[in-house]
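Ligand-bound model needed. FVH.
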Amino acid sequence: MDISVIGLGAMGSSIARTLVERGQRTTVWNRSASKVDASVRGGAIPAGSSAEAIAASPLIVVCVLDYRVAQGILASAGHSLAGRVIVNLTNGTPEQARQMAHLVGERGGRYLDGGIMAIPPMIGQPEAVILYSGAEPAFLAHEPQLGLLGTSRYLGADPGLAPLHDLALLCGMYGMLFGALHAMALVGTEQVKATEFTAMLVPWLNAMTAYVPAMAQQIDSGDYASDVSANLAMQAVGFDNLMEANDAQGVLPDLLVPLQRLIRRRVADGHGAEDLAGVIELIRKADAA
Ligand code: FVH
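Prediction:
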């Protein structure tokens, strides 16, 4: 099958390389020619322009820096989009995805938005999960090719669903990674090496991750008060110690201050006997917190 890849940054070049290696006739375009050359040496076919790359294949993967760039490329393609399936794997927001679907649809193309839950070296392996949303018949027709990039998960007809899930997963990732950085900074004030501390940190984070499904059940039921094993009023007191120790050790408190504010607010609202999961009620309503 023919496929075109537009954008040969770290991710796009990995996508193009994987497709070539798996026997796809892959046409590529990138703003900077040097990256095209590298891809062509690997077996891809160069296109003279983005419009030429779109015209070359029924299935076009776009993976550029942001939607502003992607929109410029697709808008300038005009009616060469007609009859094409555009799979936009560029990171963006749900609203941007819906607008892009509209743009492609107006020009006679079909649109799938995607969220790549992987880093470039993972592309082509089952661990590379790629979320899709948008035109379902187009997804089903091209799943065999898209499946070459990793494990595909189709989330629904609304093109905004893939970026919504993508960004939510990134929220979870950043919360965890920034938490790990903060923990390493705190123990580092007493010359504990990050590599040494990791042996303790990773099992702890794994144990806490195992607690997430129970939190999810509380969130879906709205019951934060049954079977409470660590009540929020107790956690608020412990959090005060945490803040005091950070201050004494000279560690920047910026990551922790908003967490303490949420815990205190929830306790002040009368939910001190409940579990931590109830804080979601404040997070859900930006103006209430
Ligand atoms: N790399 C990763 O780990 C993450 C994994 C999850 C998904 N993201 C998203 O993928 C999009 C591309 O990311 P990338 O890592 O390939 O990014 P870069 O290596 O910086 O390549 C950027 C490409 O965009 C092209 N580009 C930038 N500005 C323009 C422009 N004005 N006109 C045309 N093309 C443009 C750039 O071209 P060039 O600089 O080589 O000429 C690259 O092809 C991104 O949404 C991630 O969030 C990656």
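The two ends are 52 Å apart (CA to CA).
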